[in-house]
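debug: dumping io for the single-chain case to check the tokenizer round-trip. Nothing else runs in this session.
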Amino acid sequence: MNYQILGFFMIFLILSGCQEQERALLPLFESDFVYPLEKRDSLDWKLESMELFFYKMDPTVSTAAADEYLSSYFFQNIKEGRILVRSDDQIGTVDSLDIRENLLLRDTDIIETIFEISSLITANDVYRYWEKYKIKQAWRYDENTGMLHSSVQEVTPILRNKKGKWLESFSIPNDQNSISVKSVKEILNNKDNIWVSETRHFLNLNTINFSDEVSGNLLKKIFWEDVLSNKVAVEKKNYQGNFEVFNPQELLTSIVDTVITFDPVTYDEKIQVYVRNPVVFEDILGYKISQLWYFNNRTLKLNSKVIAVEPMVKDHIHGQLQSLFTLRE
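debug: decoded output
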């Protein structure tokens, strides 16, 4: 009997912990992330640009064909009714919604000249012309860890016709309801995850419609206070490019930088003094977000996991965006 009481008590503690963790997740906003279906790695990171890296896919597929592999896998499961789609606010299989024709793209929709039209009157699987995905994400802030979390709600394949118009013929409800608690190593080692990639992009807080419960300034304030109180540990890269523990209190003092330049004609020396005032949370313009994306063969869902967050401010010398520190999963 005592063991039963103990068992019930332990279950109560576990459920209470889960509820507490759920309460610590602050709903923030929804966003549409555009994932380009082309391989773009080794890019210099700039505002409005994105880096993309491939980690894992079916071993029989080349790296160059990684995105097409994901699209074809999506497409095949849609055609066979294993993945539902949304069209005109209705959800079902392509046959139940009577939109199977939307899975074909005729050459006359793409090509230009009369000669080409008369020569190529065939239909192709539309995924070959998908140029990008519009991925709807829900974002939350974990007040226990100071980490941003995202979950994929919907995936919309987008193609462009011969007139340059972007077409969205259907979308794929995804509903990644749970926050991914798996480590990067666990995600990569999971055989059900047949496709994994990483993106890094700038999340501009000035372009986001926040929920009624929170605003951009409130998010920055909460995040900043959590970091300064050492509630969460942050890191920064050293000159060798390796991460090391960083004390955010260093940002609360002024810094004076002296820059010496020489006139290219007269060789006159010019001395300029730049002062960086103590950083405040209002200085944060947005976050550089590193996300891991993975498609699970068992659940037939695309998942996202935020693995690093870097608050970005303007550099006090050149006015360019720079990272203050990095919070890693």
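debug: round-trip ok. Confidence is low (pLDDT under 50) at residues 3-23, 39-48, 110-122.
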